[in-house]
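Running this now, will post back.
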Amino acid sequence: MPTLNDTTPRMAIGVAAACIALLGAGCPVKPEPPRSVPAASSKVPSIIETIVLPQPASSEPSPPSLIDPRFSDDGTSVLFTNARGLSTIRIALPEAIHAFPVTTQSTGLFLERNGSILARFPNESDREVVVAVGEQYWGSQFSPNGDWILFQEDRVDGAHIWVINKDGAERRDLGLGQQPTWLHNSQGVLFVIAEMGQDIENQHNIVASDLWFASVDGTHRVSLTTTADQVELNPIVANDGKHVVSIDGSTGQVLLSTLGER
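Update: finished.
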């Protein structure tokens, strides 16, 4: 799939703001060269099946623009924010599925100081770690086990995904990707690689997008979908590691995928 090389993303149908930050911009100042990362017993996931979740009836003339997906605390639904009205929309999962949100064990927090992203650990005498230096870095997330930090780098040829351990000693560029989310076992991330096009008004929109996986140790990087009829965006993973929800950017439909192993 062609990579992104545009710098002005705009929403596809039914997902206003879903393509925010899909594209890189500016001249990056790269972090220090990647160092070796301890090997992890990462298993490569695969998608067994994908179904479309029924959406509740709406009185609006067009489907809601769904952003900010997250699993409900009781595991029965997926919650979204409607970008048009900023209301919360609940979409039920099938009765046989209970999918809970992934949480992190880390007690750290992120700060921005003088153009740098810092991780501070209050339970460790306020120890601080420099995650990245430069305004092109953003989107820091602790892994579920608290041992790793995920962040993104904007580049002119498309955003890249990075990981660094909580001590700041090991870091790795996982390559091109957008909208990353941690797997439940902290051994890898799911993300999308999207392609931008131009409509008849010379505006920018997402014309294709697939789900990808990359392992933290850098040994695996594989495409999970190659769907010409679906534009997968905004993936989130349940804490059982078996279910992924994404939004089809071409239709606004909510997709539920079941994960297996290759």
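The longest strand covers residues 204-215. More later if anyone needs it.
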